[in-house]
Design brief:
This protein is an alpha/beta fold. The protein is built from 12 helices and 12 strands. Helix content is 43%, strand content 16%. Strand 6, helix 9 and strand 7 form a beta-alpha-beta unit. The termini are far apart.
Length: 338
């Protein structure tokens, strides 16, 4: 098995430089970082987790980097992460990426410098080199909600495919045939996955998803408003708008009301990511609910297992459809994570 000295020799750098790269220290040049990571891959080097734990005293602190603290889904997720971590004897430091990869990486570097024991991350994009460095460097890390393909760390997420299929079947049963989606960023796994699930569900019922009925959003309310305004300006606007997250759904609702239209009488509305106050909007919003509390608990437990030398498996939990009046159907109810 390759040693850290072998990696240093292969990369043509000092052992100290290899150590700094593996610990994601920002002082290393990009050229040296690239050489070291190439050597790590070529030699199949993996840090010795037991030796690492002997060198570094645990702080009993976890880092949580979430995509947007203003998004109620992530606010709930953070709350349940903190609750479960406390039960296991850990404290949590939270970083808000605000859907910005540069801010995400800033928080990750800061947390590592503070010697946290492990990281929970909901990536703001799918191509962060730093995230790859952290994984190769041996810092215990778990992806929650979103993930980055090709990075070998446990992923704890919800699968909304079945719930999206249920939603489309529900809308089809109400007579709707022109269904539009406000998609999340293509750089995120959830952004892509929800569009493809929607497209597949429509295809299964013999319906198409024209390009005109795909609005590009960024998981923020303003993008939901803009996409819906464009839908409503079409010669043949959709009968339904499905927003791929809760904030974009609220933006869509604003745009519909600004046109003097009524939900669901003039146009139906549904959202991915149920939140507590969807029951208080007028009308209450049909949504796909993720098991937020269960996801948070599973993610913290997986990270604790990594820190303590065990090998956790990735976890995928099902989301479910909650029907309310915004889609025009009889309500089911209510929340899935209590």
């Amino acid at each position: 098995m390759a040693s850290i000295k072998d990696v240093a020799a292969e990369a043509g750098v000092s052992v100290a430089t290899v150590s700094r790269v593996l610990n994601s220290h920002p002082s290393v040049s990009e050229e040296a970082r690239t050489r070291v990571l190439a050597a790590v891959e070529a030699l199949g080097y993996r840090p010795n987790a037991v030796a690492r734990s002997l060198r570094t005293a645990q702080t009993r602190t976890l880092g949580l980097v979430i995509s947007d603290v203003l998004n109620p889904y992530f606010t709930e997720l953070a709350r349940f992460v903190e609750e479960e971590a406390r039960a296991l004897g850990y404290s949590v430091i939270i970083g808000n990426a605000d859907e910005r990869p540069d801010l995400q990486d800033h928080h990750i570097r800061t947390l590592i410098d503070r010697r946290i024991d492990g990281l929970l991350v909901s990536p703001a994009d799918g191509g962060s080199p730093l995230m790859r460095d952290v994984a190769l460097g041996g810092t215990p890390m778990v992806f929650v909600d979103r993930w980055i393909p090709g990075i070998d760390v446990p992923v704890v997420r919800a699968d909304g495919t079945g719930a999206v299929k249920d939603l489309v079947a529900h809308l089809h049963g109400l007579g709707h045939r022109r269904l539009a989606i406000i998609a999340g960023p293509a750089a995120t796994t959830t952004g892509n996955e929800r569009v493809e699930a929607f497209r597949a569900a429509l295809r299964g019922l013999g319906l198409a998803l024209p390009d005109a009925y795909i609005g590009q959003g960024d998981f923020q309310a303003a993008s939901g408003r803009r996409a819906t305004e464009r839908f409503l300006a079409l010669a043949e606007p959709p009968e339904v708008v499905f927003a791929a997250d809760n904030l974009m759904a609220l933006g869509a609702l604003d745009a519909i009301r600004a046109r003097g239209l009524r939900v669901p009488d003039d146009i139906a509305l549904a959202a991915f990511d149920d939140i507590p106050w969807f029951v208080h909007t007028d009308p209450p919003i049909t949504a796909i609910a993720q098991p937020t509390a269960d996801l948070a608990r599973a993610a913290v437990r997986a990270l604790a297992d990594l820190i303590e030398g065990r090998t956790p498996q990735s976890v995928t939990l099902p989301a479910r459809l909650v029907v309310r009046r915004s889609s025009g159907g009889a309500a089911t109810n209510q929340r899935s994570d209590r």
